[in-house]
Amino acid sequence: MKIIVGVKRVLDYNVKARVKADKSGIELQNVKMSMNPFDEIAVEEALRIKEAGHAEEVVVVSIGPTASQETIRTGLAMGADRGILIETEELLQPLAIAKLFKHVIDKESPGLVILGKQAIDGDNNQTGQMLSALTGMRQATFASKMEFEGSDVLKVTREVDAGLESIRVSLPAVVTTDLRLNEPRYAKLPNIMKAKKKPLEIIPVADTGVDVTSKLSVVEVNEPPTREAGVIVSSVTELVDKLRNEAKVI
Amino acid sequence: MNTLILAEHEDGELRAATLSVVACARQLAEHSAGEVHLLVAASDAEGLAAKAAALPGVDKVLVATDAAYEHELAENLAALVVKHADDYEHILFAETASGKNVMPRVAALLDVSGVSGIIEVKSADTYVRPIYAGNALATVRSEDAVKVITVRPTAFDAVASAGGSAAVDSVDAADIDAGVSFVGQELSDSDRPELTSADIVVSGGRGMQNGDNFSMLDEIAGKLGAAVGASRAAVDAGFVPNEYQVGQTGKVVAPNLYLAVGISGAIQHLAGMKDSKVIVAINKDEEAPIFQVADYGLVADLFDALPELSTALEAG
Ligand SMILES: Cc1cc2nc3c(=O)[nH]c(=O)nc-3n(C[C@H](O)[C@H](O)[C@H](O)COP(=O)(O)OP(=O)(O)OC[C@H]3O[C@@H](n4cnc5c(N)ncnc54)[C@H](O)[C@@H]3O)c2cc1C
Ligand SMILES: Nc1ncnc2c1ncn2[C@@H]1O[C@H](COP(=O)(O)O)[C@@H](O)[C@H]1O
C-alpha cells in the first residue's frame, strides 16, 4: 500500500502573524516558515504505519510556491520516500487544494491519505473532508489513534467535542490528524543529507488541468480589536472583591 | 432565498450551538428575505422535531429518520444535506467537531467553497472569520450560488428554546454508506456545564503539575457553577482529557468570566478564550503573556492562591 501525506508550508507557529499595511493579507516576507504542525504528525504516522509493515511507500505532497520544496525535503528527511510539488504562486482555497490532491490520487492510487486536521494559517479545517467527498474515499477526521484491522479496514479513534469516538472505515480512506496522534520525530543530519537525493517531482499547476479558480475572495484582512490593559491585584481577597463588586461576574 | 441549518443534538436535546446558528441564520434571512429551515436527522426524531419547531425564528423543520443517524457519520449526514440542498442560498453548520466534519463534504459535493467559522455577517454574501489563530480577521465574499458555512457559536447570541411554532415536514433519508461504521465512544460524564456554553470557565495549564491537582479547579468550578477547561500542554501531559482543550485547535469559549490558572498565554490558547467578557489570570511569572489580555491578574503561586480562592468563595 502507498500512503500520500499532505505537507503545507505555513508561517511558523511561534511567529506572530502581522497584517499587511494594505490589508491584503499577512506579511510572509522574511519570516520563518515551517511545515504545518498537523502535517508533521501526519508524516510521522505514515512512517510508523510503513515501519509496522502496513505500507511500502510514503509520498509527501505539497501545493504552493517553489519554496515549498523545503517543506517536502523536511518530510523526506523524516523518512518519506519521495515528494511531489504542485507549483503555484497563488494562495488557493481548500476546494482547489482538494481537487489538486484528487488529481494526484487518481494517478497514484494510494490506500491511505493522511492530512492535517487544519492548516494553522487559514484555520480552515476543510481539505481532508473535501478530498474524501470528491474521491469517494472514506473519511476519518481528528484522529488520535489509528489501528489496522486486517489489510483494508482501519479503526480510528477521533477527538470529538464530548470526548473520544471510534469509527471503522474501509480503505482507501482519508484520515486527518489531531494533536495527540503521535509525537513527530526530528530529522537527523545524515537523513537530511540523504533527503537531498530522494526524488521530488515538480508539476506546474497549469499542467494538472484542474480548475483552481474560486468564487470565494478575501475583501480585506484586519487586525483584531485589542483588549484594554487590566489591573494587577495584590491578593485573592482583592480579586474576589473586584469580581463581585466591580465586574459583577460572580 | 432560504437558509438551511443542519441541527445538532444529543440525548434527545438540541445542542446549544445550534441555537446560535439559528441566530446567525436570522441575520442572513434579513439580508436575503428568506426563511430559515432546520434539518433534523435522527434515529428517533419525534421529540426533537417538536423542540426544533419551538425555536423562535425557525420557519420550517425538516425531519429525516434513519437508524444510521444515531451517530453523526459525515458521509451519511453530508449525503442527506446534499439531497435536500436545492433552492437554498445558505447552508449552515455549527463550528463544532461534528459541523466541521460534515460542512466541507457538503461544499465539495456541491462544488462550492466552504466558509469556516464565521463570526460576523456583513451582508448575504460577505462574512468575517478569524485566521492565523485569531491574529487577523478576514472579510470574505462568496459568489457561489450556495454558501456553505460553519458558524462560530460564541459569536452569535443563542435564540430562546421556546416561543416559535414552525411547521414540521418529514423528508427522505439519503443512501447510507456501508463503508463506514460507528464503533464506540468514551465520553466524559461530568455534571458540570458544557464548556462552550458555560457562563464561567476555570482553566488549568501545565502549571497545575498533574491531573490530581485539577481537583482544586473542580472545587472552585463547583462553587461557581463553572465548566473546567485546559491548555494543550495540560491535555498533552495527560492531566485532563482532550475535550478540555481551549484554543485555536481546541474549543472556542467566550464566557462572562474566564479564569486561567498556570497558563502562560500562548497565542494558540488566546485564540480560544480572548473574547471572554472578563479574564482573570493567576500565574507566578509576572511576565507571562496571559497578563496582557487579563482584566485582573494575580501574580502568585497557584498552590497558595487556589485554596485561598476556594475559601473566599465560600465566605459568600
Ligand atoms: C499546532 C498547534 C496547535 C496548538 N493548539 C493549542 C490549543 O488549541 N490550545 C492551547 O492551549 N495550546 C495550543 N497549542 C500549544 C501552545 O503553543 C502552548 O504550548 C500551550 O498553550 C502552553 O500551555 P501552558 O500555558 O499550560 O504551558 P506553559 O506555556 O508551560 O505555561 C505554564 C505556565 O504556568 C505557570 N506556572 C507554573 N507553575 C506555577 C505555579 N505553581 N503557580 C502559578 N503559575 C505557575 C508558568 O509561569 C507558566 O506561565 C498549540 C500548539 C501548536 C503547535
Ligand atoms: N497547499 C497545501 N499543500 C499541501 N497540503 C495541504 C495544503 N493545504 C492544505 N493541505 C493539507 O490539508 C490539511 C488541512 O488544511 P486546511 O483545510 O487548509 O485547514 C493540512 O493540514 C494539509 O495536510
Provide structural commentary:
The complex is a heterodimer of chains A (250) and B (316). Chain A has 250 residues and is α/β, with parallel strands linked by helices. Chain A has a single domain, classed as HUPs (Rossmann fold, 3-Layer(aba) Sandwich), CATH 3.40.50. Chain A contains six helices and 13 strands. Chain A has helices at 37-51, 68-78, 94-108, 127-135, 189-195, 236-246; strands at 2-6, 9-11, 33-35, 57-64, 82-87, 112-116, 138-148, 153-160, 163-170, 173-177, 200-204, 216-222, 231-233. A nine-stranded mixed sheet of chain A has the order 9-8-7-10-6-1-4-5-11, with helices on both faces. In chain A, a hairpin with a 4-residue loop joins β7 (138-148) and β8 (153-160). The longest helix of chain A has 15 residues, at 37-51. In chain A, 48% of the residues are buried. Chain B is an alpha/beta fold. In chain B, 26% of the residues lie in helices and 29% in strands. In chain B, the strands form four sheets. A seven-stranded parallel sheet of chain B has the order 7-11-6-1-4-5-12, sandwiched between helices. The radius of gyration of chain B is 21 Å and the shape is globular. The model of chain B has no long low-confidence stretch (mean pLDDT 96). At the A-B interface, α3, α4, β7, β8 and β9 of A face α3, α4, β7, β9 and β10 of B. β9 of chain A pairs antiparallel with β13 of chain B, so a sheet runs across the interface. The complex binds flavin-adenine dinucleotide and adenosine monophosphate. Adenosine monophosphate (AMP) binds at residues 6-8, 36, 38-39, 42, 61-64, 94, 97, 115-116, 118-119, 122, 124-128 of chain A. Residues 6-8, 36, 38-39, 42, 61-64, 94, 97, 115-116, 118-119, 122, 124-128 of chain A line the site of adenosine monophosphate (AMP).
